[in-house]
Structure formats: structure tokens, C-alpha cells
Amino acid sequence: MEDGMSGFTFRTTPRVECAVGGLADVGRLFGELGCQTVLIVTDRGIVERGFAATAEESLRAAGIGVAVFDGVVADPPVAVVEEGVRAARESGAEGVLGLGGGSSLDAAKVIALAANTDQPIEEMVGVERTRGARLKLILAPTTAGTGSEVTSVSVLTSGDNLKSAIFSPVLLPDIALLDAGLTVGMPRHVTAATALDAMVHAVEAYTSRTRKNPLADAMAVQALSLLGANYRKVLAEPDNVDAREKMLLGSMLAGMAFINASVGAVHGLSYPLGARFHVPHGHGNALVMGPVFRFNLPAAEALYAELAPVLLPGRSFGTPRAAATALIDELDAMFTESGLEGRISKLGVTEADLDPMAEEVVVSIGRLIATNPRDMSRAEVRDLYAAIF
To answer: Over the stretch 247-295, which tens digit does the pLDDT of each residue have?
Structure first.
């Protein structure tokens, strides 16, 4: 956006319920939505932690029938989502509860829609190509990172290992249920990766070349403030529920920001790492954020400088360049402290993969270069990958 205000659209989840222990209230919430049967969409790990049982108990106590689909895997393939659609139809579900990390929430959104329409999932891929209405939908995240509970996008993996995104306002749930208690047992590496993912959402939304807007800006700033102030706290004190809740709130606000402003090249370069090498999405973003943000400096210095005091309150910076660099240095330091692997060569990527990955970014994911503050050529994308090889 230029200096003058231009028109914008802002859409988000109509209702947010934020309460520690809130999952135990999910029966009442689905009752309010008028559902008599609900499908819980989740993964095996969440079932093993007892969260699905908590939800099931609450639903049954409210007189609501329950079925469970726990087949979700990371970067969910379309085939897995189709299994979930069959489970929803067979159970006669009128509502879907997405319970888990970003993969479970993304799967739940598409299951809620596809179970209620005859449109093949492949035809939904793209921007606003979905037809029909979805089943009632509540999303309860167990990680503080993706913001999927307030976004109108689902990212699935197609048969040829490419990431396919479905963008449609229909995917926004009826209710986002933020229960920080669900995030307390998150392993350290997942806590770190998802938190860094959320911080990338905030920074990329704030610096979007195409859809930056004042509402998204306000949410991005508040998100970065909450996430930055509590990141080291949750790594040092994993059972600190207050800090966990602030991370969850920050993640949600960052989700509200990026879905209405767009993300940029960090996400663009991270997608091939996820689809081809199964690097978790937050870890992929954390790997490429430093090189991408430094590359963006000539175009985004002023905006990065505005965010520096949000992430580094109380610090003074002599110049906008010093402030912008301090912001990126601090994000780099947070990544280093996470203990996550910092070299893609240690994650299965070979030198021969760099060219095809760069090609994929420029050709298939070019929309995320278009929203990035600075244009990138195929050679520049390859150089950024090479910097972390």
C-alpha cells in the first residue's frame, strides 16, 4: 500500500472463545450451533494425550453423537482428507471439531466443506473456487503458531508432493476455541518452530507489498509484542500457562493479520522444504526467514525499523537501518536458541535439489514473491537456499 489509504477487505472468524480448560465446554458450543452429531478431526498423538477424549466426553454429556477421525498426518495429503470426508458422511456429522496443530485444523476445514458438497477437493484449489456451504465448524489449536483457527486457507499436499492451497471465506470456522492448556505439553522443538512461524506471519503481514492494511497492521504489531515477550519464557518454563496463553493469542492475531494482508517470500521458500522433504512448516519458515529478511532490507528497511521496538522494547536505535538489522538479528538469535537444525543439507536436501526448488518457488509459488517487499529472480532464490545449505 502506498502512503495514501486504499480500500481493503478484512475477514476473520466471527467468534473467539479463549479460556484455559475451554475444550471441556465444546459440547455446549456445538449445542449452540444446533449440531446433533460431530466428527472430531485430529491425529494419533492428540488422541494419545487424551484431548480427543475430553472433547468426546463434553459432546456426549451434551447429548451429541460423536465420531473420531484420527488419520491426519503432517502436510496432509488430499487422499487423507478424502478419508476424513468419508468418515464425516458415514457418521452423518452436522459439525466438525478440528483439534490439533495446523495440519489437523487445515484438514478439518476442508472435510467440513467437502462432506457437505459434491465438489472434488482438487477443484477447490485456488482462490475462491469452492462451491456450497460447509458443516458447522469449531477449531481448537494445540500449537501456538499456524493461526489456522482464524484463516480462510487450507494447505494440503497433492499427489505430486506439491503444496496446494484452498482459499475461501467458507473455511473460516464458526468458533475459534483457544485453550492454552492444550499447548502445555508441546515438545520444546514444536513450541519453538510454531512460535517462530507466528512471528514470521506478523512480520510478513506488516510488510506485504500488495494487501497491507491498518487492521492487519494493528494485529501484527500486537501479535509480535506478545510472541516476542513470551517466547523465551515458554521455552524455559514449558508449564507456564499464562505465557502459553499469550503465545496462543499472539499466534491467533498473527493469523488474522496475514490472511488479510498476505505472507511473502519466507513462506514461498519454505513450502518446497515441507512438501519435498517434510520439514515442519514452522521450522521451514525459521530456516529461511533470516536470509529472506536481509535480502528484503533495501525495500523493507523502514517497516522493519517500525517493528524493531515492538520485538525489542526499551532498546534505542540510531538509524532505521540499525533498527531493521536489530530486528532481524533478534529473530536469528531466537532461531539459534531454539535448537532447531539450521542447515537444510542436514534435513535431506542435496545440492542438486536447489535449482528445482528455486524453479518451483518462482513458477508455482510466484504469488508469494509478488507480495514480498522485493522481487526475486530464480538465481536469487537459489542463492538464499545456498546460504543455509
So the answer is: 999 999 999 999 999 999 999 999 999 989 999 999 999 999 999 999 9
The grid coordinates listed for 23 are 475444550
- The tally of CA atoms less than 13 A away on the side-chain side of residue 208 is 24
Question: Terminal CA-to-CA distance of the chain, rounded, Å?
Answer: 34
Pair 13, 172: CB distance under 8 Å: yes
CA atoms within 13 A on the CB side of 292: 27
Hey, what CATH topology would domain 16-183 get?
Rossmann fold (3.40.50)
Q: Long-range contact list for 182-185, CB < 8 A, 24+ apart?
A: 182/23, 182/51, 182/140, 182/141, 182/142, 183/141, 183/142, 183/143, 183/144, 183/244, 183/247, 183/248, 184/238, 184/239, 184/241, 184/244, 185/49
156 - beta bridge partners?
Answer: 164
pLDDT 10s digits, 47-92: 999 999 999 999 999 999 999 999 999 989 999 999 999 999 999 9
Closest CA to 137 of 94, 95, 81: 95
Angle between the 281-311 and 188-206 helix axes, to the nearest 10 degrees?
A: 60
What is the pLDDT averaged over residues 287-312? 98
> How is the beta sheet containing 126-127 ordered, strand by strand?
126-127, 163-167, 153-157
- Collapsing DSSP to helix, strand or coil, 310 comes out as helix
Q: Name the residue among 242, 357, 239, 231 with its Cα closest to residue 282.
A: 231
Could you tell me the pTM of the whole model?
0.96
Q: Residue 320 contacts by C-beta under 8 Å, 6 or more apart in sequence?
A: 301, 302, 305
The residue whose grid cell reads 505465557 is 243
Q: Are strands 65-69 and 126-127 parallel, antiparallel or unpaired?
A: unpaired
Residue ranges covered by each domain of the chain:
16-183, 188-387
SS3 236: helix
SS3 of 389, please? Answer: coil
Burial degree of 251 (CB within 10 A; 0-12, 13-18, 19+): buried
Element of type H or E holding 88? helix 78-91
With a cut of 60, say whether residue 12 has pLDDT above it: yes
Q: Classify domain 188-387 by CATH number.
A: 1.20.1090.10
pLDDT, tens digit, 9 for 90 and up, residues 204-259: 999 999 999 999 999 999 999 999 999 999 999 999 999 999 999 999 999 999 99
